[in-house]
């Protein structure tokens, strides 16, 4: 998935960026509210991690404008706001402005990642945190993958390609949509990268798990 991280604190930003990327997610990092608004108007995101105390435009203003902007493709993106420990009023205001969840700074990275996964599950309407297809079992929350009961290890990039597909079985994602979930602004993308990682998944889990929809993209069976 592709995440927009809006955080002005350089130290926190670096740590969070590394943690999210280590999960195989594509992350764009902006350091003020005006840049966040610009990114939201131009990119397609699966989640927004929004610090409420941002320069140039505070997080609440960014969030309210996003939720009110009928023409914005990210209008309904799940939003996780980060607030200071004693800022109860700020948390309430964040939730009232359309945030889906909040996390209190300084936060534990494992908690952050769990909240990110939970928000995505909710957004995808998946109550059942396991995907099963033939002999393949996938648990997104823990990234456990088994084939006929035997554990299979996927690389972070293979996982990044598989995850958005199993989030909504039956839905077709184009190569470009999958690329967007793999790479951030600063990455160079080789033209066949998606095919390479899909090949890797098929090699490990069987050729039928990810189906080609000719001219359209890829999907996993329902
Ligand atoms: Ca801040």
Which percent range fits the helix content? 40-55%
What's the main sheet like?
5 strands, parallel
What is the level 1 CATH name of the largest domain? Alpha Beta
**Termini separation:** 20 Å
Share of β-strand residues: 15-25%
- Taken in chain order, the helices and strands follow as EHEHEHEHEHEEEEHHHEE
Under CATH, the topology of the largest domain can be stated as Rossmann fold
Quickly describe the structure.
This protein is α/β, with parallel strands linked by helices and 222 residues long.
Question: Would you kindly provide a written description of the structure presented here, covering whatever features stand out?
Answer:
With 222 residues, this protein is of the alpha/beta class. It has 2 domains: 2-123, Rossmann fold; 131-219, Arc Repressor Mutant, subunit A (Orthogonal Bundle), CATH 1.10.10.10. The chain is 41% helix and 21% strand. The chain has helices spanning 10-22, 33-42, 59-68, 88-96, 109-123, 156-167, 175-182, 193-205, and strands spanning 2-6, 26-30, 47-51, 79-84, 101-105, 131-133, 136-139, 144-147, 150-152, 211-213, 217-219. The strands form 3 sheets. A 5-stranded parallel beta sheet has the order 2-1-3-4-5, sandwiched between helices. A 4-stranded antiparallel beta sheet has the order 6-7-8-9, with no helix packed on it. Strands 10-11 form a two-stranded antiparallel sheet. The radius of gyration is 18 Å and the shape is globular. The protein binds calcium ion (CA).
């Amino acid at each position: 998935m592709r995440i927009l991280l809006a955080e002005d604190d350089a130290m926190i930003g670096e740590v969070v960026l590394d943690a999210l990327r280590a999960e195989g997610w594509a992350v764009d990092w902006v350091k003020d509210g005006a840049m966040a608004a610009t990114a939201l108007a131009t990119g397609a995101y699966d989640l927004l991690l929004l610090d409420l105390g941002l320069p140039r435009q505070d997080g609440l203003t960014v969030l309210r404008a996003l939720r009110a902007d009928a023409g914005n493709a990210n209008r309904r993106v799940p939003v996780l706001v980060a607030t200071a420990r004693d800022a109860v009023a700020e948390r309430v205001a964040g939730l009232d402005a359309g945030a889906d969840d909040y996390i209190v700074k300084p936060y534990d990275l494992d908690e952050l990642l769990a909240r990110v996964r939970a928000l995505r599950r909710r957004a995808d309407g998946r109550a059942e945190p396991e995907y099963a297809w033939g002999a393949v079992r996938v648990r997104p929350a823990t990234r456990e993958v088994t084939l006929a009961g035997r554990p299979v290890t996927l690389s972070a990039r293979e996982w990044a390609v598989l995850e958005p597909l199993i989030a909504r079985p039956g839905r077709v994602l184009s190569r470009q949509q999958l690329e967007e979930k793999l790479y951030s602004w600063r990455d160079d993308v080789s033209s066949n990268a998606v095919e390479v990682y899909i090949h890797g998944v098929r090699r490990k889990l069987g050729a039928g798990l990810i189906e080609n929809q000719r001219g359209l993209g890829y999907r996993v069976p329902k």
